[in-house]
Amino acid sequence: MAEHSFADLPADGLVAVVKRDCATCEMVEPVLAQLRETNPDLMIVTQDDPTFPALDAVIHDADLRLSWHADIETVPTLIMRSAGEEESRTVGWSRVQWEGLTGVCGLGADLPDQRPGCGSMSVDPDRVDALNAKFAGGTASRRVEFAELEDEFEAMFDRGWSDGLPLVPPTPERVARMLSGTSRDPSDIVAIVPPNLIEASVEKVAINAVMAGCKPEYLPVVLAGLEAVCNDDFNMHGVLATTMGVGPILIVNGPIRRGLEMNSGMNVLGQGNRANATIGRAVQLCVRNLGGGRPGEIDRSTHGQPGKLGLCFAEDEEGSPWTSLAEDRGFATDTNTVTAFCGEAPRIVFDQMSRTAESLTASIAQVMLGNVHPRISGMDTVLVLCPEHMARFSDAGWDKARFVTELRGHLNLDVDSILRGVDGIGEGIPAGLGLEGLQLPKFPDGGILPVHAGGPAGLFSSVIGGWVSGPMGSVPVTKEIVR
Amino acid sequence: MSVTVLDPTDETTPQVRERVSRPESLAGLTIGLLDISKPRGNVFLDQVQNRLAELDATVIRFSKPTFSKPAPADLRHEIASQCDAVIEALAD
To answer: Taking the model in full, what pTM does it have?
Structure first.
């Protein structure tokens, strides 16, 4: 928010803000008349009816500018100012407080001792967004006025802002409301967005979050998500430019999941939850509209994958006997985080018959051996374990480290069987590297990221295969969500 | 009533730059061959180098540290300052 301006208020003296549509304001009308006698400079501001109170020189705050700038939340409000600064204020009617503030005794002798006030029109939910948009220092972004006969939804498609789905028009009022979701200044730079390496301000991210359909309380997650993908480790430029069908996948941990009512349960990787659906979309819209990462331009993906519209989900921490993804990555359980992973579309791990941890581990490994291609190794993966699969491991008393160790034991590739040309298949690793007779791990150290999520029934987990891992490709990045 | 929205883009305008005119001949020129480090890019560039040698061009070979990231600024500067033209090899 911009600095409040008190230019319209007197440097010294009393100010009373009232409205007729408030019984307490009407009740104190004689008190204001009384104060005018002792303090002729008393400034009286009325929000609704210019003829109320029936006194001289009442200022009508028709556009609520003065009320907004003076942070009036309740009427009546009585303010004492001195040397251009507010000295004190009292809200509602309280004889003791009004007398204390004004130094005048015997105010409203026939009134009750106190009576609460009413809501100021400047904080009326139907007005506050427009007022914020109008007075909060103004937004820095260019205003685009659509023509009278232009359909605003078609106009946004025409301007190339959309990922293919309709967008919510980012009016100044909606953007102001979105910006109320963060304590960060609208001009703060959140990230340098690839591929064009554009500085993204909080305001620009908020505009794209409005378009994506986010609520204001999602904005901190969008900001952290954008930070997580815009750095050399995650390598968003490469993730866009690769012909492989991968994109940023966001996993949210911490108490904020519940506050935002994110889905970590049934259909967790699917449709139907606003936060899940719009947070990832907002990050992708920032990459598109700010960074310039558009399909057919820098985005060269052969197939892409449906999650590139935005894939974001929450881990089911409460239902998990294991440490969370965020804990594994060094964050406390009460810290809110978002982890960005460069991944392909989720693929199902079907196992309805394993009844022991050993059987299920070997079974999951068989699916994971096929990640990307059975002969290709060295890429990370997210493994989304469903609750019924997780039960096999908790029943056996396995912790996450035990599971990963056992799993990796099944995930070694015999080099001799994956050499190029073996079985008449050209794909594979080249001969002559001195690896013949050896085994190669399918996944790099630390390259398996288990996450617990999914509906309570069903023996289906999911794997989300990665892209080139490590500093030569994309490294998963976790950022703390700061409100 | 018309609708006013805030611009969601970066609001920049791309800078338009003239392309360098195509050389009449490659004879005597220095040509950079940039391997982006995809498998077998070198196979392609070896062939290109042979053909360029027949045209009396001088060849300097460069390679990106990884195909997955943009060429570092220093490498781009090195190519621009040493070469008259560059051929980049995507491969697989």
So the answer is: 0.83
